[in-house]
Design a protein that fits this description.
With about 350 residues, the chain is α/β, with parallel strands linked by helices. The protein is built from eleven helices and 17 strands. The structure holds NADP nicotinamide-adenine-dinucleotide phosphate and zinc ion (ZN) (2 copies).
């Protein structure tokens, strides 16, 4: 298969920093679209992956899966895009398209395995996929999203940059909020106010739910209210935690490290669920009594399908929901990963990919 060489930021070993390298993108197939990447968010999954915390990382790796850009070239059978269109790529860039999950728009659970937008075997080219910290991206039009217009920010930053995190953080919380029916009359807990958590507050509020956040960071208690939360609780405050015992309909757990989920299961009403979206590398322990009492459940959710991702982007554009971002140059990417590990980001780093040129 013919390929094209493009610039990217990636690394060859677990210990090396990310640095400028050349990667190969496939030449356009008839249904492929090529975009110039404008912005790419930094998700905690990028950090887990470059450090091989889950096992299974293949090097060299170019992370980045919250990608927005402008279409430059389209394959001869493409109908959904034309050059100049704004477009986006999230986590999924291919799936079998035939299994019951793909037919139901749940490509993230494809029976034959999803091709992720980075560090995944690409069935079409035979190589690996490389992510969004690069000049351009190529994928089939079916997996590329249409990017609605987002208003520019009062800070002068591009709304499009602040919308990039929706491609992973946004869909990862939108899908369970919708599935577990966040809306008027529902008390929804958000656990962890990072990239995912802060977007969850905004989306759950836009859906009409009452939102209570739980954080380990004193500095985020007041900020959570600015983000739209009705109430915010410092999880180390036992008295404050007790007030929510048996009160919540469900809780989205976005925590990236090992933590005690029983403390949160105990805040659920009858039939409530703690929905895990965070992906700590270590197993979590569930006490039998935490779920047996009140017929509660401990469940999980993984991003969302392509149609639902488009629905989420349109929902966020309509409600003017974007992430709170710190826009950085690609040369600052290693420092940004270190700060993300320390929890020193409010609330998402987005890389201005023009700085790669
Ligand atoms: P993030 O920005 O680092 O946010 C994680 C938050 O978790 C932190 O801001 C912190 O919130 C809390 N936290 C961190 N360490 C903690 C600890 N030891 N104990 C308690 N709380 C802690 O990360 P993110 O990008 O939002 O991603 C969160 C997790 O979701 C990651 O594991 C990521 O891989 C995963 N993820 C999953 C999916 C999916 O589809 N399932 C998609 C994307 C990401 P406070 O300061 O408020 O306590
Ligand atoms: Zn499938
Ligand atoms: Zn992600």
């Amino acid at each position: 298969m013919k390929t094209k060489t493009v610039k990217a930021f990636g690394k060859e070993t677990v210990d090396s920093p990310l640095h400028l390298m050349n990667i190969k993108r496939r030449e356009l197939l008839p249904h492929d679209v090529e975009m110039d990447i404008l912005y790419c968010g930094i998700c905690h999954s990028d950090l887990h992956s470059i450090r091989n915390e889950w096992g299974g990382t293949t090097y060299p790796i170019v992370p980045g899966h919250e990608i927005v850009g402008r279409v430059t070239t389209v394959g001869k059978h493409v109908t959904k895009f034309k050059p100049g269109d704004l477009a986006a790529v999230g986590c999924i860039v291919d799936s079998c398209g035939k299994c019951e999950y793909c037919e139901d728009g749940l490509e993230q659970f494809c029976d034959e395995g999803v091709t992720w937008s980075f560090n995944s075997p690409d069935k079409l080219s035979g190589g690996m996929t490389f992510g969004g910290f690069s000049e351009s991206y190529v994928c089939d039009e079916k997996y590329m999203l249409k990017m609605p217009e987002f208003k520019n920010l009062p800070t002068g930053q591009a709304g499009l940059a602040a919308a990039a995190p929706l491609l992973c953080a946004g869909i990862t919380v939108y899908s369970p909020l919708k599935h577990w029916q966040a809306g008027p009359g529902k008390k929804v807990g958000v656990l962890g106010i990072g990239g995912l958590g802060h977007v969850a507050i905004k989306i759950a509020k836009a859906m009409g739910a009452e939102v209570i956040v739980f954080t380990t960071s004193p500095s985020k208690v007041e900020d959570a209210k600015r983000l739209g939360a009705d109430e915010a609780v410092l999880s180390s405050d036992a008295e404050a935690m007790k007030k929510y015992s048996r009160k919540l309909h469900f809780i989205i757990d976005t925590v990236s490290a090992k933590h005690d989920v029983n403390a949160y299961l105990n805040l659920l009403r009858q039939d409530g669920s703690v929905v895990l979206v965070g992906l700590p590398a270590e197993p979590l322990e569930v006490n039998a009594f935490s779920v047996v009492s009140g017929r509660r459940s401990f469940s999980g959710s993984n991003i969302g399908g392509i149609a639902e991702t488009q629905e989420m982007l349109d929902f966020c554009a309509k409600h003017n929901i974007t992430a709170e971002i710190e826009l950085i140059n690609v040369q600052q990417i290693n420092e940004a990963f270190e700060r993300l590990e320390r929890g020193d980001v409010k609330y998402r780093f987005v890389v201005d990919m023009a700085t790669l040129k």
